[in-house]
Amino acid sequence: MNSTQIAGIACIALAALMVLASIAGHALGRRSPACAEDASAPGSGLIHSAVLALLGLLLAFCFSQAYERFQHRRELIVAEANAVGTMRLRLDLLSAAERSAARTELREHTEARVLAWEYANGMEAQTRELARADRAEAALWSRMVSVTITPEGAPLRMLLLPPLNELIDLSAERLAYIHAHPPLPVGILLFGVALICALLSGMGFASRNRLPIFHVATFALLCAGTIYLIFDMEYARFGLVNLKEPHRLLAAEIEALR
Question: What is the value of pTM for the model shown?
Fold first, then answer.
């Protein structure tokens, strides 16, 4: 089960729990005169508004941060694909034998990087592919150094080593951003505040015989849907929001290296 499926199940459970919390709050307000009196007391609306404002602030903050990280991951993929393309073209400056071996190493590095992303929910497979990418990267770097350290290859040094160094830096930065997510307590706080809002909203309807279940369910679905979208952008691999489109640039570079 991948992260998107887990997030989907958690958000469905949250929507159901929010509806149940509203029902429980309404029942508590109807059965307990003290709770009903507190819910209708002057100033109680300010508390309800403050909790709702806190939920809105948390949702806005988490959504903004998730979208910013999603955009940066997309930009890193495009930059990495461009770096691979630049390196691929500059390998044509090498001799036929060196060019063939270097293209193979560059292709293995790029393939392993793409597979590591696809296996991001399987740590063993991800570790294996990242190790393969590191081996291909080290072999390619050693080859470029050995070629350009000679007097004959010295003119190629500034053409081959800087783009390869940029590719290595981008690979490390993108790997760091794959695992850049909000701390777990932030998610727990978000779920907890949403449930408290639902409970208080149910108590706010204690003066009515029936709870407006449609409005309560709509509120729960909107909150859960927004939280799911936040998680979907944070783990943009298999869900509605994903990075498959920019990954096609890397796939095109892999095909060009064959």
Answer: 0.83
